[in-house]
From TrEMBL:
The lineage of its organism: Bacteria, Pseudomonadati, Pseudomonadota, Alphaproteobacteria, Rhodobacterales. It comes from Maritimibacter alkaliphilus HTCC2654. Residues 342-399 form the HTH luxR-type domain. GO terms for molecular function: DNA binding. GO terms for biological process: regulation of DNA-templated transcription. It comes from the Bacteria. This is Regulatory protein, LuxR.
């Protein structure tokens, strides 16, 4: 996961001949030869951060992203920071080194790309903050080149507030690569500035053009973990055999031995057995949340507390178990309403459930969240039906275990 501070995102059209030449033979461009150009700085995050990037992406025929947008091939991809090596090795062999800067310039914001050869690209936007859009979330599919002329596909989940902008300058420098020069856009259709946008990357998988593989499972996983990452809670998504599907950055910090694709490992054998037992028991149990499991740490700090809860394939792409970790040494607790959504509640249902779990009446809870008492009562009935409970005390118990 990376947290961008300033992100230029432009919808463009490329020249048809240059578009075809910039794609691997297995990929076909969309009929309108559309694509995107992005420039960003991401000083914080986990795994790939800090990261600075510029990309020229071509929209290609293939699977549609979960939010309906076309899949994009990273034709030109220039990165700076420790994440460049990881992205080159695992995601896109076209990723080369360079430094992207995005800085305020009076009423404008300027982005530049410098490499060893000099200034390759410069874009200046005039953001229209009065027209800022409501928060936007999505999951996009991207394709990169793999070794041996293969292709990788991966998902990126994002959330941010987009500021419509006017392009005041878009120049490709003399030092730019021949490929970048050929991809000078023939038209900029729209331009956005996103000042803060967390992005969560899925692991890549091989892509074979023309096959009808379903890539939605990985996309669902990255969307779920993006939600948990944004509320800052350590969590792991595992299958019923304990194989790690995804870790939030906070979980990676406290579980240094855990690896995506490998078994979720803790330090002591008895704790491992307890955790594995809780995961496997949820396959046949009717419980919504396991009892807390204390996981001791080798440095003698306070134990980590873990709770496991089942997650349906609708949310995770396959039947899975979400493990929530609480680190008593940090004194932090998650947002109950956000975590209740993991159990299948809508945002409105989760807000009401979190409020009533504290002991408030339906009338008091309705007033607090701005709905009538009748609406609160009907919503509460839906919450009880979804969670398989019938009492407010049971709801309070579920919320307490989530925390």
């Amino acid at each position: 996961m990376v947290k961008t501070e300033r992100f230029f995102y432009l919808g463009v059209r490329f020249e048809p001949e240059a578009t075809r030449a910039a794609l691997p033979e297995a990929l076909e461009p969309l009929d309108d030869f559309s694509g995107v150009v992005g420039m960003y700085v991401a000083p914080e995050g986990w795994g790939l951060a800090p990261l600075r990037g510029t990309f020229f992406g071509i929209s290609v025929k293939g699977p549609q992203s979960p939010d309906g947008s076309p899949t994009v091939f990273f034709s030109e991809h220039v990165l700076g920071g420790p994440g460049q090596r990881i992205i080159f090795k695992d995601y896109n062999r076209r990723a080369r080194r360079g430094t992207t800067d995005v800085v305020p310039d009076g009423a404008f914001v300027r982005a530049t790309l410098d490499t060893q050869t000099g200034l390759e690209a410069s874009i200046v936007l005039e953001p229209h903050y009065a027209e800022i859009l409501p928060p936007q979330s999505g999951i996009h599919y991207y394709i990169g080149e793999a070794e041996n002329n293969g292709l990788n596909i991966f998902s990126i989940a994002f959330t941010g507030r987009f500021v419509p902008s006017t392009v005041r300058e878009f120049s490709i420098g003399n030092a730019a690569s021949a490929l970048m020069k050929s991809l000078q856009p023939s038209e900029v259709v729209w331009a956005m500035l996103i000042e803060q946008m967390p992005m969560t990357f899925s692991a890549p998988s091989r892509y074979f053009a023309g096959e009808t593989a379903d890539y939605s499972a990985r996309a669902h996983q990255v969307g779920l973990m993006d939600l948990l990452s944004r509320i800052g809670h350590p969590a792991a998504l595992v299958n019923h055999h304990g194989r790690t599907l995804f870790l939030t950055p906070e979980a990676q910090r406290i579980l240094t031995s855990a690896k995506i694709g490998g078994k979720l490992l803790v330090w002591r054998r008895r704790d491992q057995q307890a955790l594995d037992g809780a995961v496997s028991a949820l396959e046949t149990s009717h419980r919504l949340v396991s009892e807390p499991i204390a996981i001791e740490r080798p440095e003698g700090a306070l134990p980590i507390l873990a709770r496991a809860l089942p997650v349906s394939s609708v949310l995770a792409g396959e039947p899975a178990v979400l493990i929530l970790f609480s680190d008593p040494s940090t004194g932090s607790s998650p947002e109950a309403a956000a975590l209740l959504q993991v159990l299948g509640l809508t945002p409105a249902e989760a807000r009401l459930a979190a409020t009533m779990a504290s002991g408030r009446s339906a009338r008091e809870s309705g007033e607090l969240i701005g709905v009538s008492e009748n609406t609160a009562r009907s919503t509460l009935k839906t919450v009880y039906d979804k969670l398989g409970i019938s009492k407010q005390s049971e709801l309070a118990g579920i919320v307490a275990r989530l925390g």
